[in-house]
Amino acid sequence: MKIQKNISLKKYNTFGIDVMASEFIHITSVVNLQKILREKRNYFILGGGSNMLLTSNIKNPILYVNLKGIEVINEYQSTVYVSVNAGENWHQFVLWCLRNNFGGVENLSLIPGNVGTSPIQNIGAYGVEVKDTIHRVNAVEIKTRKIVSFKNSACEFGYRNSIFKNKAKGKYIITNVIFKLTKIKHQLKYSYGAIKTELEKKQLKKPSIIDISNAIIKIRTEKLPDPNKIGNSGSFFKNPVVNRNTFLKIQAKNKTMPFYKMETNYKIPAGWLIEQCGFKGKRFGNTGAHKNQALVLVNYGNATGIEVLNLAKKIQETVQKKFGITLEMEVNIF
Ligand code: EPU
Q: What are the CA-CA distances from residue 287 to residues 46, 270, 296 (Å)?
């Protein structure tokens, strides 16, 4: 087990924030993990670092979950169960599925982060959420060091939400996720406007999972900044959900406002609200709201976590004042 002292976390968080870790422990096996947990210290769990904003040095020992491996564990005529260890890169796993013609995760192409953290915020894009393909989530309970298995329904998945952000927060370390994928008759989802347009441009009437993935990769690359070039954590805020009354009031004044109709409520794109408040493409020192998608806050190079957090708060206040809507941060602040 490799343990490093006083290292920079810059390359371990997609925001590229340069803070220091006092102790950085590489976890490469579940047995090692269980062993280290016996010391009962107050650990900081790190996966792909794609959904966090670090605002200060981390004094607690960091457990860097670097468990690798992808394996088919059960195979039937039309479905396959795949076990993926937590430290596998999400997009590399998607590519592996495409190579094997396993369907279900193609819409989630190019999402930064690791497989082990994907259930925590139930990553989602273009009409698909990871919960749609998750069969089980396996974890080690920090207190007892026992291996616990959560079936899909026990994960309490919601929009960018799960039990791991609520009741189970800080209690488990996800070690492995089991996915149920399709081998034939893939359930393709491409009604989302931008994907449809992209497929039509290529005159693909019967797209394959690879075609869908390629379309999504193209859309994401055009719209979202690459964290390897400009630090970011994807959508910084969740899209707010408002009731019908509030929605109608805002819509009366903003006829072109995009929205997603839910059962009774309405989801309004936070990116649109932020753009209306004038933040899109504006730079504030080393940080700003991205020029193509205002919902993504970026680090132009040497931003501190505090700088980004201050901008996020300013955005929240402005949106609150202009629209009376509270934007909830999606990114975890440490
Ligand atoms: N919009 C603006 N201005 C902006 C950004 C967006 O007017 O600066 C408008 C767009 O024109 C569009 C609407 O808002 O009409 C929705 O925009 P988009 O399709 O980009 O999706 P989103 O709702 O902003 C969500 C997810 C993304 C995911 C996309 C595609 C959340 C918080 N974000 O964004 O997820 O990729 O849908 O499915 O739900 C992430 O979570 O990190 C993430 C990138």
A: 24, 18, 11
Mean pLDDT on 247-254: 96
Q: Which atom of ligand 1 is nearest to the CA of 293?
A: 8
Distance 120 CA to ligand 1 centre (A): 20
The fold of the 70-182 domain, in CATH, is: 3.30.465
- When pLDDT is averaged across residues 277-303 and rounded to a whole number, the result is 97
User: 231-333: what fold?
Assistant: 3.90.78
pLDDT bracket for residue 1 (50, 70, 90): confident
Among 295, 298, 327, 332, name the best residue to mutate to test ligand 1's pocket (greatest count of ligand atoms within 8 A of Cβ). Answer: 295
| DSSP string computed for 167-214 | TTTTTEEEEEEEEEEESSS------SHHHHHHHHHTT-SS--HHHHHH
Q: Is the CB of 293 under 6 A from ligand 1?
A: yes
Percent of the chain with pLDDT over 90: 96
- Ligand 1 centre to CA of 91 (Å) is 19
Contact 224, 233 (CB under 8 A): no
pTM recorded for the entire structure? 0.95
pLDDT for the residue numbered 12 = 97
Q: 4 alpha carbon to ligand 1 midpoint, in Å?
A: 38
pLDDT for residue 322: 97
Range 2-65 classified under CATH 3.30.43.10: yes
